[in-house]
Amino acid sequence: MSEKDLALKNEKAGKALVKVAFLAVLLNLLLAAAKYFLGRFCGSLSLQADALHSLTDVVGSLSVLLGLKFAERKTATFPYGLYKLENLAALVSASFIFFAAYEIVKEALRGASVILPQRVPWAILGLTVMAVVTWLFSRWEARLARLSGSPSLAADAEHMKSEFLTMGVILAGLVGGTFGFSWADRVAALFVSAIIFRIGWRIFVDSLKVLLDAGLEPETLTKIADIIRAFPEVVEIKRLTGRRSGRFRFIEAEIVLDVASLDEAHEIVTMIEEEIYDHFPDIDRVVIHFEPPQVEEYVLAVPIDEDGDLCPHFGCAPAFLLLRIDCRGPRGRVKEERILPNPYAQEDRRRGIRVAEWLQRQGVQAVLIPKEEVRERGFLYALAGLGLRPYFRSNVSLEELKRNPPCPSRIQAKNVDQQSGS
Fold first, then answer.
1. Whether 263 and 303 share a structural domain
2. How many other CB atoms are there within 10 angstroms of residue 386's CB atom?
3. Residue 409 domain-assigned?
4. Are residues 325 and 286 in the same domain?
5. What is the DSSP letter of 310?
6. d(CA 389, CA 43)
7. Are residues 231 and 328 in the same domain?
8. Domain span at residue 260?
9. Average pLDDT per run of 10 along the chain, which is 422 residues long?
10. pTM of the full predicted structure?
């Protein structure tokens, strides 16, 4: 999936979530009005109090709506978007859940209501209809929250479930009040308030974790690590971290790649990113830092002339000095050196390419190339195809080279960032 397709998909999902949140606001307004009317109609103080509770739900749903509406806006001040507005909205919703539980406990402890028995059946019918509508809407909202990964929508769905439970408590209170069993209403109210407190606490903690940039769950990171390790070029995953922001996730990885060129490294990293995006549509951005494997020891070929000095040419050099260099210390050290005559020095055609192939057969991993030879591109392509790393130098003496031998990376850039995402 390309970056453009991913952005378009996220935009469509965001618009759908805004519509759902707007419907939640309307539903809570209707519930508040219906509860207040039924409470006045049958003389139930708990119903009237729950109408006020539904009004607080309207405020909570509005916070969710605002969070979804403005979360994806990116500006110069907020280049990564305002995704955490959703988590902030979820935190506000949690506070309303706590308030709802407090209201239930207060009503249960007071237990003072004058119910009109002859009107209770109408109130029960109205509550039943509201309970069914609320239950269906909360299930639909929770399903959309799971599909989209929206924390604020999930919080609002949990809040709607708490609304359904409070209706059950009020229904029990109405029936109990009709038959004189007011204590049953109080016990049920305290039980449900404990459940609501638990729901609010979970939403509160989850939102706070995201706002404080807590890491992703280990299961998700393990799946992403498996995707990365599936590529044979990946030698090691040095670091893999992730965080949430709103309903989106951000991934950062540092890996070691065993490749022959920088272009190949970029290609592999792009393929890894595409694979991660395909498996996790709610990931907004993947940042991968890659580096070559640590070179412990390698053989460097240096072209030399008849006098044993550095030769300014590659293909027609009379001989090559092969230096076995140990790179495990703080600086390179020559462990072994030997001189091999160039068997292709007198060739007229494809001399540079044949020399490159011959050096590769001698176990050479890198070749010192005088800068004067850069204009002759043919043998450079041969070096790249054979996996020999060119090491360009000019005006350097063999004594200096032996005293301070280079420890080149196996790819031409030691640490390059590859970033994708909207």
1. no
2. 17
3. no
4. no
5. B
6. 88
7. no
8. 218-293+415-421
9. 47 62 80 83 71 64 62 68 73 78 74 67 85 82 74 68 70 74 64 74 80 80 92 89 80 85 84 89 85 82 88 87 86 88 87 88 86 60 79 77 74 38 40
10. 0.53
